Structure to design on (341 residues):
């Protein structure tokens, strides 16, 4: 089986490639990635020399390049996306282009080349804000709140249209917030861990009582592989974690595990349109594919904190250049008063 993985130099894609190559001796992987600010070949250290792995630099919006690279592949796992909500708020254009136009190109080429399975990687954010105590299952309405989640919902609907119209063999996974090794530190947990390592302020948006459903990336990768191998065509599968927690409580947890003081907490101006709660029901994954998340938050946090502490060269690499200007732009002039919310 030859798998075309898009976005394999990003956080989840690189973990997925490592997961597959370590388990599946008869799988080959073509990693197709544009290497945006979030794509980093250092995420694939130790993989590049693998005989069953190859890398092609390219944009998923470039139809001819995608077609050339995808030829001969049996299946597609489509991770590539602009994945950060904050960036999508301040500059929606590239997010909509990659997530919607890019997915449209992927579908067009995969259909033409008659791939046998297309796994589209989506997110719980397409369901939008949950009320207190409410959970989303796969039948819940799509009510995205940010340009990022709207572009993901749009791409999900394109996938759905291909299934209905052309009988195209696609499956969608919608996972909750992932965390773990190799995550770019613009996202909440790596930002908190790496700032705490340097005794820098930890920016908490608004009152910090927003809830997220935390899923360790290894659990997600195991779920995506199960969907690739055994997921039913045309279906959507939710993949959520064990722990749903308020941001503030997760940060305090991290500080306790790292032996750092709560005085590092810094309440900053909230994100516009910020969803209060994400929470998934995942019985379908359990019943159909025997998948349940296995890594509790405490265990996953300990492992992730250790990973960032032990990978200072990787961290120095990603924090250079773009990250420094991003951080200055989004955080250094941010309103630091709770009254501003
Ligand atoms: P990431 O930002 O770490 O990586 C994205 C990768 O896609 C990068 O390697 C980047 O270079 C590549 N890419 C971006 N635009 C491209 C383009 N036009 N052409 C080719 N490659 C391009 O993202 P991630 O966190 O690994 O997320 C992967 C997927 O999982 C995304 O589809 C995202 O929406 C989804 N997802 C992420 C999370 C999460 O918590 N991180 C949760 C649910 C769903
Ligand atoms: P994030 O990692 O951006 O994921 P998402 O918005 O896709 O859920 O953020 C996770 C949560 O953390 C979200 O409620 C926003 C919040 N957050 C902060 O409080 N401070 C920060 O600096 C960041 C990046 C996020």
């Amino acid at each position: 089986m030859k798998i075309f993985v898009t976005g394999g130099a990003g956080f989840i894609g690189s973990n997925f490639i490592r997961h597959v190559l370590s388990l599946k001796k008869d799988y080959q992987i073509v990693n197709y990635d544009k290497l945006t600010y979030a794509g980093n070949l250092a995420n694939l250290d130790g993989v590049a020399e693998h005989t069953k792995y190859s890398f092609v630099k390219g944009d998923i919006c470039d139809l001819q390049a995608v077609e050339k690279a995808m030829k001969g592949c049996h299946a597609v796992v489509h991770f590539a996306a602009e994945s950060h909500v904050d960036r999508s708020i301040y500059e929606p254009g590239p997010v909509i282009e990659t997530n919607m136009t890019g997915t449209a190109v992927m579908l067009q080429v995969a259909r033409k080349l008659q791939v046998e399975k297309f796994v589209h990687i989506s997110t719980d954010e397409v369901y939008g804000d949950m009320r207190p105590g409410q959970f989303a299952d796969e039948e819940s309405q799509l009510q995205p709140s940010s340009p990022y989640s709207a572009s993901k919902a749009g791409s999900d609907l394109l996938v759905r249209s291909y299934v209905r119209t052309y009988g195209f063999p696609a499956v969608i996974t919608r996972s909750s917030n992932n965390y773990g090794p190799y995550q770019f530190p613009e996202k909440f947990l790596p930002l908190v861990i790496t700032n705490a390592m340097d005794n820098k302020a930890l920016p908490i948006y608004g009152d910090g009582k927003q809830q997220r459903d935390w899923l360790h990336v290894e659990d997600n990768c195991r779920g995506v592989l199960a969907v690739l191998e055994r997921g039913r065509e045309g279906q959507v599968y939710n993949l959520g974690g064990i722990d749903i927690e308020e941001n503030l409580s997760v940060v305090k947890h991290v500080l306790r595990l790292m032996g750092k003081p709560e005085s590092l907490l810094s309440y900053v101006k909230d994100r516009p349109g910020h969803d209060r709660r994400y929470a998934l029901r995942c019985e379908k994954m359990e019943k159909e594919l025997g998948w349940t998340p296995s890594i509790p938050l405490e265990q996953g946090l300990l492992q992730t904190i250790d990973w960032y502490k032990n990978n200072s060269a990787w961290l120095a690499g990603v924090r250079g250049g773009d990250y420094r200007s991003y951080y200055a732009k989004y955080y250094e002039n941010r309103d630091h008063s709770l009254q501003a919310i």
